[in-house]
Amino acid sequence: MPLAATGALVAEATAARTAVAAFNVITLEHIEAVVAGAEAANAPVILQVSENAVRYRYGRLLPLARAAADTAEASSVPVALHLDHVQSDELLRQAADAGFSSVMYDAARLPYDENLAATRAAADWGHANGLWVEAELGEVGGKDGSAPLDAHAPGARTDPGEARAYVTDSGVDALAVAIGSSHAMTTRTATLDHDLLKQLSEGLDVPLVLHGSSGVGDDELSQAVRGGIAKVNVGTALNIAMTAAIREFLAAHPDAVDSRKYLSVGREAMARTVTELVEVMRR
């Protein structure tokens, strides 16, 4: 089916008091696994390409974007493309022509006033070019190998009052909130601040996004969705599933050299993870 629009999928999830899952992809195997897992769950899904993934692919966006778009269009469920954690204005300006309907513009590293100014400019440009724009306030730690922020560190959590002003002044369509999760976690031990989420959900009129969801357990994740999270970002969980499956296969088949053998095992493991996480979000 034709590419879906991220904004429409998130709006549908918000109206249904559920969340749409958004998975970060790095290889064609990731893309195929996410779509297969979503089809098994009969659920819409968002394929996310991060700026880091583009950097890994020699700085070229189109090869992965075209693979994602082609796979999405062959899917039996709605699939949207999202450009994630973009800091480069040059990359931002490639999004619409590459098939993306949305972008997460990441200025969270900047002081508030600079964050706001940069995000406002990105949102203005994005809207003029048909993009749905997500931003982040507070800081979900663990990005680019940095250590997770202490839960009580200044700026580690999204302030509800500041968030209201930020959303109004920036004009963004969705806000990623810092409520206790962290990027790149390999254990599902994060404890979310559900009281803060309640305040944010009640005080903001845009959909809320949870980053770093690989480190959030099933019960915490389903509670967050019930509490107002409408888009759930997952990345590391796929890599954990893929790597574990490939390691197990190669340990059992030490003479294997055909990469299709072990990559297919990794792809199947990622697809199962996608289905399982999508089902958690439906609870």
From TrEMBL:
Superkingdom of source: Bacteria
Keywords: Metal-binding, Zinc
Any Gene Ontology biological process: carbohydrate metabolic process
GO MF annotation, one: aldehyde-lyase activity
Cofactor annotation comment: Binds 2 Zn(2+) ions per subunit. One is catalytic and the other provides a structural contribution.
Positions contributing to Zn(2+) 1 binding: H85, H183, H211
Binding positions for Zn(2+) 2 per the UniProt entry: D106, E136
SUPFAM superfamilies: Aldolase (SSF51569)
Cofactor annotation: Zn(2+)
Annotated catalytic residues: D84 (proton donor)
Pfam families documented for this protein: F_bP_aldolase
Identification of the protein by name: Class II fructose-bisphosphate aldolase family protein
Organism annotation: Streptomyces sp. NBC_00119
